[in-house]
């Protein structure tokens, strides 16, 4: 049986960033960026080539544009 993502995440042991960095031979670590992977996303036939969500943006003042 293949485990669900949430099951794998709940079984993971939380470790300090410095410990993980030391095992990888990285000297200075101040942050970690996690990039979720969704796999292949298929669109329904007849939809535009560029989804509307690609037009959503937020400027340096926190103003969100492209929603409507």
TL;DR of this structure?
It is built from two helices and two strands; from the N terminus they run H-H-E-E. It is mostly helical and 68 residues long.
Please explain how this structure is put together.
This protein is mostly helical and 68 residues long. The protein has a domain at 1-39. The protein has helices at residues 5-11, 17-24, and strands at 57-58, 64-65. It has a two-stranded antiparallel ribbon with strand order 1-2. The N and C termini lie far apart (43 Å).
Radius of gyration: 19 Å
> How much helix, percentage-wise, in residues?
10-25%
Q: Any low-confidence stretches, pLDDT <50, length ≥5?
A: none
Proportion of β residues?
Answer: 5-15%
Main sheet strand line-up: 1-2
Instruction: State mean pLDDT (0 to 100 scale).
Output: 81
Give me the number of helical elements.
2
Which descriptor suits the 3D outline? flat
Number of strands: 2
* N- to C-terminal distance: 43 Å
By secondary-structure content and strand pairing, the structural class works out as: mainly alpha
Largest sheet: 2 strands, antiparallel
The SSE order reads HHEE
């Amino acid at each position: 049986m293949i485990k669900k993502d949430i099951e794998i995440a709940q079984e993971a042991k939380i470790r300090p960033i410095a410990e993980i960095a030391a095992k990888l031979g990285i000297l200075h670590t101040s942050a970690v960026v996690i990039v979720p992977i969704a796999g292949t996303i298929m669109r329904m036939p007849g939809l535009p080539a560029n989804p509307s969500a690609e037009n959503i943006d937020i400027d340096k003042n926190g103003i969100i544009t492209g929603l409507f």
